[in-house]
Every structure is written in structure tokens, then in C-alpha cells.
Amino acid sequence: MMQNKFPENFLWGGATAANQCEGAWNEDGKGMSVADCSTYKPKVDPKDYVAQNGISSDDIEKAMKSDDISLYGKRHGVDFYHRYKEDLDLFAEMGFKVLRVSIAWTRIFPNGIEEKPNEKGLQYYESLFIEMKKRNIEPLVTLHHYEMPLYLSNNYDGWYQRAVVDLFVKFCKVVFKRYKNLVKYWLTFNEIDSVFRHPFTTIGLVTDRYPKEKLEEIIYQSLHHQFVASSLATKYLREIIPGAQMGCMLTRTLTYPENCDPKNCMLALKDNRENYFYADVQVFGEYPKFIKNQWDKKGINVKFESGDEEILKLYTVDFVSFSYYMSFVSSIDAERKEKVNGNIATGVKNPYLDVTEWNWQVDPMGLHYSLIDMYDRYRKPLFIVENGLGSRDKLEEDGSIQDDYRIEYFRQHIQAIADAIEDGVEVMGYTPWGCLDLVSMSTCQISKRYGFIYVDADDLGYGTYNRIKKKSFYWYKNVIETNGVEL
Ligand code: BG6
């Protein structure tokens, strides 16, 4: 049998986002973010609702008047804000080389518009990065992970108004300057392709505030602003921290044709191309022609300011990062087919794949497939910055958590990465999602657990928040120690 060969400097680690783990939603001057409006809905079967895409103006009004932290699950998170040193000790014990975190914009500029940054927010991340370095853990920092200031959503139409580009770039410059000696790897927008699936979380757009027939154009315009902001962030990163690296971040939604009917194959090809479009702009520095053709056909008018095209072309990313959880099926007959879920989309069921408790299709070979396909397309180093199994875990009477299902999930997915490396794909690293249990993005609950480390809290945020190592903790530690040889 072939022995897996991961590069010596392979970045093994884990991934988190500020709004899903920090809690402390209104401490030390932090402003309210869009994430602080999303609620856990105890009476809804998590399988039945997808993301916080249905948020209304009324929901926001209520959220702004409420101090509740129980139903607004991202307000309590898993208390990483106060416990990060203890958590970093555990990550270091597993041998993490890298930890993906995000900076909450609202800790630095509470409403996004202040002239001066909030010093306490800056200090918090400074100390977080210093503590990581002490433990030989490299920070991988997302600048925008579903947590823009709510003020901008309410007063600037989220990313729809061009002025937000400058506000974001200002925030980026501040954090680049402050952390220039601490952070080398950066990502601009988490899952930038989510703009259509859940516009509120991604671009701060409350859809009931705009005419329905204009929405598509508004979303494309906001996306364009994010693309320009991403390029400008890359420009300033290069000026302020020479040698640092910037990545884009895509939700990889691989889709297979339902069968070899050329119509299904063509549909799958086009669906995959739609998914790649978002990374294409950030890697190739221009919009693909087919998107502009679609705009023409639909009468969509996206305003480009003079200089935008040059900015996109000049400041492209150094590496391509992505999340991978599941694959989909493209079928011209989709309406009549059985469906499965994702956190953000539903799709046609693939009869060859198992599903998780949340009805997500598990497909390790799809990761191998995506890695080859993406490398052939982009010829840039790839970084899998999210992957994992959301599952209920049982805390046994002896205090252990026997999560063999998670070990099996990771074993297969890490093998898929090894296979892709064997096939010549350049992979920089792997950061499984929610390496520490945290609050779910879509369902806002804790019991959908992803971590190697269990957090003793329930969906309403009650509990001791004690950290407990799961069986997978020891397994992953050994994977890292043997550089992926022992799975
Ligand atoms: C990704 C997001 O889409 O999926 C994360 O970047 C999210 O923020 C993860 O948590 C898993 O989804 P969920 O809804 O199960 O938390």
C-alpha cells in the first residue's frame, strides 16, 4: 500500500469564526453585527430551515430591542472571547500548525463608520495572535465572515452602497498595520458565493426593503463591491505586509450530472461553472463572459466605477481556499426528484451517498474530485479551510465522547486530500470546521457539533462551557503527529 505523503510544511489545524465562537457580543465596545440578529428556533426541525436568509425588517427591529442571549445564539457563542488561552492550549496539544479565526469588524469599528478604531478590540486580537505564536500556531485570518456591522446594513443598504468599500478597506488597513508582525495568511470574504443564498449574512441586505424585481441586480452590485474591496484589501496587504498571502474563499458546491444524458451533463457543467465564477473573478481578475451575457439578457445593470476593472486585474489572490461539506446532483428533472439539504441549499438526492443527521450528503471522493478540478483550473495552491461533520454527540457517564463517526468522516476526507496530492495537486493545508464545538451558522444551535473538543452548553446557551476532549481529539493529534500517515 502507498504511504500518504503530505508536504513537510503542511498546515494542519482547525477553523472558527468570531461570530460563532467568541460570544461577548456587547463587551469592550463591540457594536452589533448582522450575526447578532440570527435566532435559534427551538420549534423548527433544523432539517427544515436553511440559513438566516429569511430575516425581515421586523426581525431586525426585535433583535435591536432585545438583550436576550439565549435565543440569539451567536451572542453567547462558546465564550472563546474569555477562554481563548485554554482553547489554544488544547489546539496546541493536538499539534495545530494553524488556526483559522476571523476578526469581528464590529470589535474594531462598532458601527463601521467611526473615525478611530476601538483600541480594546484591537488589543483583544493582538493578544490572541501573540498567544497563538507562543504556541507555534500560525493565524489564518478571515476579514469578513458573516458579521458586518448592523449599522451598515440599516444605513448603507449593506454592501449595496459603494461607500462601504472604503469603510471596509479602512478597517483592513488598520488591522494589517496593527498585526503586520503577527499574521501572514489572510482571507477576504468567507464564502463570497453566498450572496444569493443568504444575502443578509453575506452582504447585510434585508431583502424586504427592496423591490423584488430589482433584487438580483442589487445583489450583483453588492457582490461587485465585495470583489473590488477584496482586490483593494490585497493591494494594501502587499504594501503593508510584504510577503503575506491573501486567499479568496469559496463554498465548493460540486455537482454531478444525474446520469450520462448529455442534457444533464451540460447542466452540471454550467452549475459548476456558476459556482467557480466567484473564485474566477478573484483569481483571473475579470468577470467571465457568460456572467456578463446573463446580465445583458436579464437587463441587469451593474455599475463599474472607472478604475474597477484595473483594480480587479492587478490585485488577484495568492491562493484559493474553500469549504467543502457535500456534493450535489444536477438534473433537468430536479422538480420531481427526492431532495436533500445543505446549510444553505437543497438539492437532488444522490442514491450512492449517505446523509448526515442534518441531511447533508457525505462524499469524500467529491473532495478529491474538487481538488483536481480546481487545481487544473487555477494552478494556485489550494487550502481546505472548512470541512466537517455536524452531529449530535453523547456525553457518556464516564465523561467521554465516543465520536467514531466523526473519526471515520475525517479519515475518508483526509485520505481524499492525500489522494489529490498524489495526483499532483498543491494543497497548503487543512482546517476542519468548528475544531471546537461552536454555534451553527444556519440553525444557530450548539447541538449540531463539529468539534474535536466538546463544549458543555445546550442550544439555549445554558451550561458550564467546560471543554472536554472527544475521542476524535486523540485521533486527530496522531494524524498531525504522523503528518497524515496514520489515519
Ligand atoms: C459554512 C460557513 O458555510 O458552513 C460556516 O462558513 C458554517 O460559518 C459552516 O458554520 C457549517 O454550517 P452550519 O450551518 O452547520 O454551521
From TrEMBL:
Write down the InterPro entries for this protein, in alphabetical order.
GH (IPR017853), GH_1_N_CS (IPR033132), Glyco_hydro_1 (IPR001360), Glyco_hydro_1_AS (IPR018120)
Q: What is the lineage of its organism?
A: Bacteria, Bacillati, Bacillota, Clostridia, Eubacteriales
Name this protein carries in UniProt: Aryl-phospho-beta-D-glucosidase BglH
Q: Name one Pfam family in it.
A: Glyco_hydro_1
Cite the active-site annotation.
386
- Give the source's domain of life in one word: Bacteria
Keywords, comma-separated and alphabetical:
Glycosidase, Hydrolase
Q: Which GO terms describe its cellular component?
A: cytosol
> What family is this?
Belongs to the glycosyl hydrolase 1 family.
Task: Name the Gene Ontology molecular function terms of this record.
Answer: beta-glucosidase activity
Record's keyword annotation contains Hydrolase: yes
Source organism per UniProt? Clostridium fungisolvens
GO BP terms, alphabetized:
carbohydrate catabolic process
